[in-house]
Amino acid sequence: MGKYTAEQRQQLIEEVHTTGARVGDVAKRMGITPSSAYMWLKAAAPAPSTPVFARVVPAPSSSLRVEVGGVALVVARGFDAELLREVIAALRGLT
User: Fold this and answer.
1) Which long-range CB contacts under 8 A does 49-56 form with residues at least 24 apart?
2) What is residue 54's three-state secondary structure?
3) Nearest residue to 44 (alpha-carbon basis) of 11, 70, 77
4) C-beta atoms surrounding 76 within 10 Å
5) What residue segments make up the domains of the chain, in order of their start?
6) Per-residue pLDDT band at 1 (split at 50, 70, 90)
7) Which pTM does this prediction carry?
């Protein structure tokens, strides 16, 4: 990304998203390598809003067991919703 400006990166991303033009075509017209263009688009993509992989397992006594990335979380009736949100955010790497 060294020889290209932030403005060039933003222009390419916006043009691809707003016009639906092919990434390679926009990159070629702008004098940018296709590999750089694809890398910029990937970096600009929003993070997934849900875990990539999660397994929900029924647990005894009206609780729920959620397994994400090797971490198991048991949620029982009357759980603290704010604490659960914080734990999920931490698991997603947002905190």
Assistant:
1) 51/91, 51/92
2) strand
3) 11
4) 10
5) 6-44, 54-92
6) very low
7) 0.48
- Side by side, the strands of the sheet bearing 54-59 are 54-59, 63-68, 71-76
- Rounded distance between C-alpha atoms, residue 27 and residue 24, angstroms: 5
CA distance 29 to 44: 20
Q: Rounded distance, CA 32 to CA 54, Å?
A: 39
Strand partners, 68: 54, 71
Strand pairing of 54-59 and 71-76?
unpaired
| Amino acid present at 82 | E
- Predicted confidence (pLDDT) per residue in 35-90, tens digit: 999 999 888 887 766 555 666 666 667 788 777 666 777 888 788 888 888 877 77
Amino acid symbol at 76:
A
